[in-house]
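Ligand-bound model needed. flavin-adenine dinucleotide.
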Amino acid sequence: MISRRAALVAGGSAAAVVAAGGTGYLVATHDKPEPLSPPSVNADGKLLWRNWSGIQTAYPSARLAPRDEGELASMLKTATAPVRPVGAGHSFTALAPTSGSLLSLDSLSGVIGWEGDEALVLAGTRLGALGPALAEKGRAMANLPDINKQSLAGALATATHGTGSKLQALHGDVTGLRLVTPDGRVIDCSADSNAEVFQAARVSLGALGVISQVRLKTIPNRRIRRRVWIEPFQDALAKAEARWAQHRNFEFYAVPFTGLAVGISHDETDDPAQARGADQDSAFLDALKGLRNLLGFSTPLRKAAARALLASAKPETAVDEGWKLLSTERPVRFNEMEFHLPADRQLKVLEEVVATLEKERPDVFFPIEVRRIASDDAWLSPFQGGARGSVAVHTHYKDDFAFLYELIEPIFRRHGGRPHWGKLHTLKDQQLAALYPRWEDFLKVRAELDPQGRMLNPYLKGLFGLV
Ligand SMILES: Cc1cc2nc3c(=O)[nH]c(=O)nc-3n(C[C@H](O)[C@H](O)[C@H](O)COP(=O)(O)OP(=O)(O)OC[C@H]3O[C@@H](n4cnc5c(N)ncnc54)[C@H](O)[C@@H]3O)c2cc1C
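Prediction:
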């Protein structure tokens, strides 16, 4: 048995050899030029804003950063439209870009109080700062996404989720929130008070106003054991349902062109902490990229080499408090499409996606992420009406991603998939209305809270059928 690290280093070396020699078949990602970027300052002297992956850009005429809720309310009354709240800019869709006012709640950060085990959290708090703040009280969030760079309100607005068949997306833990409307009114809402606003605002796309604080359920801060292993893709498919039933958190990555999958589980434990070790994801991606560059011309050869390099890697384990282990770093930039499918169709769809990529797109090397999310009832929650299984396809930020719309999205849509609000998709108004039973109710609340549409940029107008 070799360690996954040793296997990855070997794969990375293969990549380096290819980069030096070059097969001429596929252009190595690192040899490609940086994607074109607009100027950092426009003709009016306005600074460029970009999202994390670099595909969304804007030149806001004003950048607002209120220091407290009172300032937020008065800024909203006079701000130049479209007014777009922004968190960490980690969405791939054009939710945040505006030529008007870009509004950040970075100054409204921290836990400001407790009601029993529920924490009152300022909406600009980054998830990475929330973990240690809750841990001071011996508490934690029930679940976390892959990374913890997002702001709390930004994560809620797109229905950000982790994985676990009994665990809801982050907004499932919200028991109340405070919304500041575009005309400066402050509305407290919960399931018992202003309930319609609450159901619309838990997943709001930032279209109703600006959320200033959130009341969050928490759980005891427990240690968990993280396990990561590599196995044949067919085994991962066969065991997936049992593992979702068995583990607190379980996900796997199907690695196209390798016949392999990477499984990751998290379970509560009282065992002492055991360090996670250095990040291996970048080395893993380098190895996969190397295999693509070297053997992209032959899927059978690519699979054989991948098995030889990776299949005997031994599992890795780590033990620590959940907030330290559930999220990891994503040092390699990418673009992403993720759809949430009815749970019973998830694995079939995954097989179809992998087969399609292996037939049509030898340039793809990123693993495909497969997660399970419990149901909730927020109006724009993709998880409304039953548990969903997500399938996420990534492309390196220098690589083409148009094929996601042409090849992959039609598969997701044929199986009743709902798009992640923050990730690439082409769906609009009527298509979304067909997927969301409370779509019209959401639009009604939106129109009541923002009759002049001051929160709407062109992307949101398109989404809501207002153009
Ligand atoms: C590397 C990476 C990993 C990711 N991993 C996951 C994952 O594991 N699971 C998952 O589900 N998603 C994941 N995502 C997607 C990400 O969680 C969402 O796109 C999330 O919305 C980004 O949060 P943000 O703070 O960057 O918000 P932004 O992208 O800045 O904004 C998102 C939305 O929130 C709104 N908003 C921001 N602040 C407020 C406010 N105060 N009031 C009202 N609306 C507001 C904005 O207007 C916008 O509509 C990932 C993205 C990246 C780039």
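The pocket of flavin-adenine dinucleotide is lined by residues 52, 84-91, 95-96, 105, 123, 145-147, 150-151, 153-155, 157-158, 160-161, 204-206, 210-211, 330, 420, 422 (CB under 6 Å).
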